[in-house]
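Re: your question from the hallway

Yes, I did run it. Sequences:
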Amino acid sequence: AQKITQTQPGMFVQEKEAVTLDCTYDTSDPSYGLFWYKQPSSGEMIFLIYQGSYDQQNATEGRYSLNFQKARKSANLVISASQLGDSAMYFCAMRERSGGSNYKLTFGKGTLLTVNP
Amino acid sequence: DVKVTQSSRYLVKRTGEKVFLECVQDMDHENMFWYRQDPGLGLRLIYFSYDVKMKEKGDIPEGYSVSREKKERFSLILESASTNQTSMYLCASSLGRRGAGANVLTFGAGSRLTVL
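Structure:
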């Protein structure tokens, strides 16, 4: 079973509008973390935002915010005021325990966002 | 500036060859990871290491092995390359085992391997 599900293979948004990229997860570990990474066409992986399972408030980083709904096991990324440079692949990832005190990061399949002028 | 360096950006190998992919980080990170990235499949974890000479299997370890003799270097080995191992390989590292900040991955630029 998939641990991280991104149901939108591709999304389109008009420049300056907001867009939400969906992510649902599955884990039995009470202590976990959720990440979003951006991969532009150049191929580099860029860390965007992090949410811990015990964090009370939704994480925000500039134009990025994470809509964390723990009961629904969802961690959607919201990008406000989209820019052309936001066109990229976006990956949701989950940190969970992998035996003892070690952790691993599991990624979803990604969503390709295209920002139209 | 924090860096993860992968020795080869592009490689072309023949079926059956032994392939080494090298990764070096200069951040004194404890954890290192190897992922492969394929279109439509996202990133899949092959192996990771949380200490020198320690390794742990990821989700798709078959056909791969790893070596971590020094803290800064993590090598991925394909003992006998096959065409289904044609892929983009991404190395990453993170600071330590605990805490949110400790587990932010820093990625290398990737190694695109083609097996003919």
